[in-house]
Amino acid sequence: MKSYTTHLSRLSIIALSMILLVGLPASAQRSSTRTRINTSKLLETKNIDVVYISPAMLQSVPKASLKIDGADAMSGIMDGITSIHIYTSSDRKAIQELRRTFAPVIELRHSDLEQLMYVKDDNGVVNLIGQLQGDNATELYMIVSGDDEYTVINFSGSFSRRELEKAVTQDNRKRKK
Question: Which InterPro entries does the UniProt record give (predicted)?
Fold first, then answer.
């Protein structure tokens, strides 16, 4: 799991860049149908680890610890997160259940879902899918599928195009120095 977490940190800037390239404004043409994923069964499924971080817990975390790879520009994105759900397993049957549960998201079955990023490498596949409403993403699903592990991280909140642009622009300035 640690290698995937490190891998995800490195991909955070790529993810934000891809979000900007795909463009959140295109979502304004989508219908207002909301995708709902029923995750209650996952809480009872053996060999699936579930982590929930509440809004109160997120507010109690010092802002300095919310930096991703030291990028202050990420603070706008981090401020937009209201809760985080993490579902992970390395058990074959449990992975099948995770895939079934999140199939509507990964297969983009509803018009409010948009694939924002896709990265395939030797370690597996990382998908970033946004649940869009107007000019904002209200849910971000990061799905990491490896040979022997499957992880879904669901960020709930409000993520505006302006915050995403600011994060990428400030990070690019730092890299050029």
Answer: DUF4252
DSSP 6-36: HHHHHHHHHHHHHHHHH-GGGGGGS-S----
| Domain-located, residue 22 | no
Q: List the structure tokens of 114.
A: 């948009």
- The reply to whether 31 falls in a domain is no
99 within a domain of the structure (yes/no): yes
pLDDT at 120 over 80: yes
How many Cα neighbours within 13 Å face the side chain of 50? 13
Domain count within the chain: 1
Indicate the SS3 state at residue 74.
helix
Which residue type occupies 49?
D
* DSSP type of residue 1: -
pTM, two decimal places: 0.69
The domain containing residue 84 runs over which residues?
Answer: 40-175
3-state secondary structure of 69: coil
pLDDT at 108 over 80: yes
Q: Which residue has the tokens 């390395």?
A: 90
Both tokens of residue 32? 């207002």
Q: Where are the beta strands (DSSP E) in the chain?
A: 49-53, 81-89, 113-121, 124-133, 136-145, 150-160
